[in-house]
Batch of 2 targets.
Target 1
Amino acid sequence: MRKKSVKSFTLLEVIIAISLVALAGPILFSVPFRLAKQEMTALYATELTRLAGLEWNSIRLQLLNHEIAWKDLAAAESRPFLIEERPYTVALSKQHQHRFTIKKAVTKAQKKTLSLNREGMLVEVNISFLSEAKEKEHSFEYQIAISCDAP
């Protein structure tokens, strides 16, 4: 009977295989973590956009119902008028929470003649989220034309 010759790996082949895995490993493992970080950043940006829209709706209703004093808006022609500043926490999960300071301010107000020769103002509102780590400020600008007439 003939014996089968069993060919095993040489030491050099094993060393080359280990070095290839060692070189490719960090690259292969870093991609999913980088993608996860980019996804979390995109989720926070989307959540801040959604929250800014909710805050804008609240301010818009206050402006349309004349709950923000007209004299404060008139003063915003020369300097910004701070509506509110408060802490805010955005939580996507228990492990992923960011603390922000939300600032809502009227940055500009100009008297305008609206339709049917009614007096009014073009009001510009800025809603900004400043992270507690002060790494980046997310700012949103909105405009609305409001009438001087009471609702």
Target 2
Amino acid sequence: MWPTLGARLIAILLPLFFAGAGCNLPAQMSFSPDGKHIAYRVDDQMHLLNESGKPLARLGRSIGGMAWSKDASTLYFVAASEPDLNPATRPATEPAEPNSTWMLYSVRPGEPPVPICKIDDPALYLQIDPSEQWLAILTRQEKGPNQLRVLAHRIGSASAIEVSRRCAAALCFTGDARLALVEQSIDDQRDSVGAIVEINLIESPDPLPRTPLLVVLCSTTPWLQPMGNDLLFTSISQSLPGLPREEASLDLFHYTRASKTLATLTKNVGPFFSISPDRKHILFEKVTPKTEESEAVHELAIVNSNGSDAHAIRDLGQYGQLPMWPAWRNAGEFAFVEPNGPERAKDATGRTHFDVMLYRVGGEGLMHVELVTKLSEGWPDAFKPFLKSESQPTTEPSTRPTSAPVE
């Protein structure tokens, strides 16, 4: 029996919290805007690769948080230890120790990383604003309860300011120095009622003013991303009286700033989605709900940004949990793992490893997706995305929920 939808979303978004229970932390890739370099995190190790997937440097222990400058010259990331520039260094297998020193770094390919400022806690997500003046950093406090915190670093300074301790995981920049996030209400800490708010970032010791955009259920609004001047996000459209939340489904919404209107782009989706660099296509998790006759079906799918011409790409139920989040390389190409299969071998630790493939969306419409190349050619198994034995599906494909792309 799966837990409630709210608990399941948090488990998907923040697998670090459940790592001790055997849950899998999906690998992440972030391509530089020119496509010539890749920031790659597998398990708890961050690496820098070239465009063909060759390792260039190990950047240290990390669970997430990476962002490229628009000119592709600089990668910003958060790591728990001094980055190791030797690509032959074997990645550590032990998780970062509690109370590690977490630092924000910048690195230019071919040069040593430069420490910028102390972050205190591990970063889950990192975003850079369009003007490249600010970085927004979502962290999880290591001491006390698992509490999310949003920090903002003004590029060129030597510190970060606290923006929020009430973020519900989703955040993004919607303009120059303008940060949007899902934030729980101060006056109602006991439930999940809150709002999507925008904050104009300035260096100030005082709390920054909020501009509310939409009232939402925080625990069921896991992801949002900018679409030009507008906003896309996943959430449950909840009305009272209504279905219990565990029986309700997520939809993908489009908020239009100019008219302050809300439209449903596509219904029955997973928590995450990823917009192509040219804003024409969206990768998302398509969910066909469970019925009395059949189990739920979860598929990686692609759709035009106006909600038309949706097509399934890959059955996600075959993985049990997701080995890696899909990542756009450019307007027509994305990286994802190879298909799973019952014949796949496990290593001595019970892990099943997957090659990373580069796919191209082509042909007429979005139906045709072709293999371009294998990015993981020559990688040792320890460097590849993996599933732990506990993560393997125990039923036929398409019967278990999973996550969809985030980068």
